[in-house]
Amino acid sequence: MSANEEEQQDQPIASAEGFASLFPYKENLPGVVDDMLTELEKRGKVGHVCQYALPSGETVIRILNLLAEVLFPGYFGKAALDRANLPFHLGETISLVYDLLAGEIARCLLHERQHGQRRDRQECEEEGCAQAFRLLEKLPRLLDVLDEDVRAAYAGDPAATGYDEVIFCYPGFRAIMIYRIAHELHLQGVPWLPRIMTEYAHSITGIDIHPGATIGRSFFIDHGTGVVIGETSEIGDNVRMYQGVTLGGFRFRKDEEGELERGYKRHPTIEDDVIIYANATVLGPVTVGKGAVVGANVQVTESVEPGTQVTIEKPRHRIKRRENQ
Amino acid sequence: MSANEEEQQDQPIASAEGFASLFPYKENLPGVVDDMLTELEKRGKVGHVCQYALPSGETVIRILNLLAEVLFPGYFGKAALDRANLPFHLGETISLVYDLLAGEIARCLLHERQHGQRRDRQECEEEGCAQAFRLLEKLPRLLDVLDEDVRAAYAGDPAATGYDEVIFCYPGFRAIMIYRIAHELHLQGVPWLPRIMTEYAHSITGIDIHPGATIGRSFFIDHGTGVVIGETSEIGDNVRMYQGVTLGGFRFRKDEEGELERGYKRHPTIEDDVIIYANATVLGPVTVGKGAVVGANVQVTESVEPGTQVTIEKPRHRIKRRENQ
Amino acid sequence: MSANEEEQQDQPIASAEGFASLFPYKENLPGVVDDMLTELEKRGKVGHVCQYALPSGETVIRILNLLAEVLFPGYFGKAALDRANLPFHLGETISLVYDLLAGEIARCLLHERQHGQRRDRQECEEEGCAQAFRLLEKLPRLLDVLDEDVRAAYAGDPAATGYDEVIFCYPGFRAIMIYRIAHELHLQGVPWLPRIMTEYAHSITGIDIHPGATIGRSFFIDHGTGVVIGETSEIGDNVRMYQGVTLGGFRFRKDEEGELERGYKRHPTIEDDVIIYANATVLGPVTVGKGAVVGANVQVTESVEPGTQVTIEKPRHRIKRRENQ
Predict the structure, then answer these.
(1) How far does the CA of residue A170 sit from the closest CA of chain C (Å)?
(2) Which residue blocks in chain B are alpha helix, DSSP H?
(3) Which of A30, A46, B257, C69 has the smallest count of CB within 10 Å of its CB?
């Protein structure tokens, strides 16, 4: 090969537009499209496309980020804020959240038509607005609760240098912020959107809290990756937990047709002032009593008395000398 | 300080462009650049830069998102779809995926030159197109399999309200969707790209499935954070698992030079109808037999008989009353 | 309903701008804004907004991505690089990092004013530049160390096909790259920014390493989701660990006022050549001696002798036949 050809060989491939048309495969793509349409039609997914609206994941993320800006002005977002422009900026942001949230809620409501609940489009739009407004009215109270969560994080983590660090970058705090917003929407009866929000939190923090769970005040998850808090969990005040903790279900019930029962209480109740250490598992509708401590790696399948500390028995390890490695 | 100066002090720092040039450090940056070039040269990384192309992480993510739009039209993406425009939209998206995928595959093939497998640039481009087309031909069959995964999720999770919720926001479902696409490319012999895809899934879901693993039909991972499914794992049909489950390797083998052996079967085989609960670990090329259940937190290092249930022995906990906290 | 109305009903809801103004809720938003301002004022958060600057999460992410481009040119970023343009591209990128980093460091320093350390704005700007430059001077040495980490990954993972795969897509490698950059800034005394960086790494990899931890050379985390390495951990050379490993604190100390003590050594020391397998927990300021192996799921709360292997005792499982499922 000549020096020029060598050099040509060494050029990285920038994009395929240049070469993809040189080869005959593309001519056969219409066949692929037809096969796909046939398969979609067969599975009833074409009608589905047109029957009802679906929320936009991107818009939901945007709503959550804007709400973070409203609850903690100056921490997030690009605007340079000062005392003079804060009211204006806050008003603008709240108005934008209202619009976006009304739209997403309306889509979720319209989506419910799939399940046989006939809804008028205009009904959904009006209810979307009403529900969005209801949530925004709760913002001062949400701030009050979230402030306590921040303090709980600082008080519970020796590595925390201040409240700002918690607000700005603690994943446990971001997860609880999103959960509390989603939980309010859940209580308001908004379908689907609360779960979309908490699964977004799950994606960015590794913390999976179902919006149906009930969580009290001054709640702190440290580190957080792997935490699972199931749909019917109930958590009191001043509870702290660590990475990998599961509050899970146990022995799912089935009805006479062999279908899963849904909605019944199957997750734990955690009372006030409990601490649950890393990778502990609490399974079933048991109660961990007030002030109890569940040690790392403990698996709890029965209720725990208040004020007790449950740790794994001193583990009998096998200890042996390693041979040549 | 005067009131004006106080106010000046209180202005947030918008960006450094204004002030960075006021201080002399920047004049010394060329020295830093030279040192860096010297170090790169020393490590043979300058030649590396020019020798072969590398895929674009951003483009790979875009390909995966577009494929999600094709497999589940209306769920993702911005387009307002209806019966009339769906075929057109589908065709356009499939065509775009083809171009992007052909380009990324071609880069991965060209990259293999590093390992001594001399490839002609044009060969790589043509093979990129062929491989992209092969994958797209499989889309109807992929949809069929993914549909079963959706149903398995709904049937296996009491918290699921419907198929749409699973498709739209379940991380376990997103991970399996990406894995199945990556696995097809792996079977087609495309280097590197499958692993880039599954590590992206890992980043957004916390679920780490090597594209070389083999997974049967109706597969469901609930919650998912922390799941690891190793390269040589084999999983049958109707298998369900929970967060924190590891199907891992055990006692790596080394050759005579002390180098790790690669590629041999070292991960578990999980037969049909198995359930593996949260944080269980299955290590080594063992078999978990058909219909078995592995309980939470169990560590399995030997094969498990079909139809048996393995749980940790009722843990002996230390339970004691807490003193003043 | 007429056919037209049916069709109208079936149109997805595109956005709320069209309908949100049709309903009266929006007129009441100013009341919501006022309530929010009152709550913020009450909590002293309005003054906070104007008192000091805060870093930009988006800019920090951009800095980390640009540094990855500098350390591993050609792997990331969009530029088509070759031998001729590499010095120019490198110089441009390093200059941009300098500007952005100086700005973010200056903001972090100015932020410290909250904690009573009065700082002159110009002081912060100059120190921002000085600190940014100090970090950039370390880049060749950082590359040297990171190169060893890459080799450690390849040598420690049978599934790795080459160094490029590790650099491009291994989350464990991305986490250590970000940690090492953050740790240098931590050693330089830059407040807050190191933690922002490592929490970003935590978000995208599931690996949580405090920037205050000390980690030696040739370090490898495989899979990684759920790893927690606490603030005062010390790790030697040639250490390898797996997903779910916690190097955590134990029995937090409190001072006479009942406040948490901060900063004291409370996390483990891991000596050279140690391997820690999946989901093992090492708690407290204990030492895991040189060449030791901590098996999967082991909970260590006492020091481990060098050269020993600690595994859980062969678990006594309950094994029973499953009834009809």
Answers:
(1) 7
(2) 3-10, 17-20, 29-42, 45-51, 57-71, 86-111, 121-137, 139-156, 163-169, 171-187, 193-205
(3) B257
Mean of the per-residue pLDDT values for chain C?
88
The tokens of C321 are what? Answer: 């036949």
Enter the ipTM: 0.91
For residue A292, give the amino acid letter.
Answer: A
Instruction: Work out whether strand B317-321 and strand A308-312 pair parallel, antiparallel, or are unpaired.
Output: antiparallel
Nearest to B103 among A16, A266, A279 (CB): A16
- The band of C7, judged by pLDDT with boundaries at 50, 70 and 90, is very low
Q: Could you give the CA distance from residue A64 to residue A203 in angstroms, rounded to a whole number?
A: 14
Compute chain A's Rg from CA coordinates. Answer: 26
| Helix (H/G/I), strand (E/B), else coil: B292 | coil
Structure-block tokens of residue C209: 């390493």
Q: What's residue A185's pLDDT? A: 98
Distances (CA, A) of A82 to A250, B108, C112, C241: 52, 51, 18, 47
B78 CB near a chain A CB, below 8 Å?
yes
Q: Which of B10, B13, B203, B279 to mutate to test the interface with C (most CBs of C within 10 A)?
A: B13
CA dist B201 and B61 (Å) reads: 9
Could you say which of B12, B156, B317 has the minimum Cβ distance to residue A313? B317
Secondary structure of residue A235 in the 3-state scheme: strand
Query: Alpha-carbon distance C184 to C186, whole Å?
Result: 5
Average pLDDT over residues B86-108: 93
Q: How far apart are CA B160 and CA C247, in angstroms?
A: 35
Q: Give pLDDT, residue C48.
A: 59
Res B79 pLDDT > 90: no
State the smallest CA–CA distance between residue C125 and chain B in angstroms.
7
In degrees, rounded to 5, the angle at the alpha carbon of residue A318 between the alpha carbons of residues A314 and A321 is 135
| C75 in reach of chain B (CB within 8 A) | yes
CB-count exposure of residue B258 (10 Å: 0-12, 13-18, 19+): exposed
Beta bridge partners of A311: B318
Residues A40, A46: contact at Cβ < 8 Å? yes
Per-residue tokens: C205? 């990899």
What residue has token string 């908490």? A198
The mean pLDDT of A311-320, rounded to a whole number, is 78
Which residues are within 8 A (CB) of B251 and not within 5 positions of it... i.e. 6 or more apart? B284
pTM of the model: 0.93
Q: Where on the phi/psi map is residue A300: left (φ > 0), alpha (ψ -120 to 50), or beta?
A: beta
Å from C95 to nearest chain A CA? 23
Q: In DSSP terms, which residues pair with A308 in a beta bridge? A: B321
Interface probe, candidates C58, C67, C121, C173, chain B, greatest B C-beta count within 10 A = C121
Whether B91 has a pLDDT exceeding 70, the answer reads yes
Tell me which residues of chain A, numbers 99 to 128, contact chain B at a CB-CB cutoff of 8 Å: 111, 114-115
Write the pLDDT tens digit of every residue in B288-324: 999 999 999 999 999 999 999 999 877 667 788 876 4
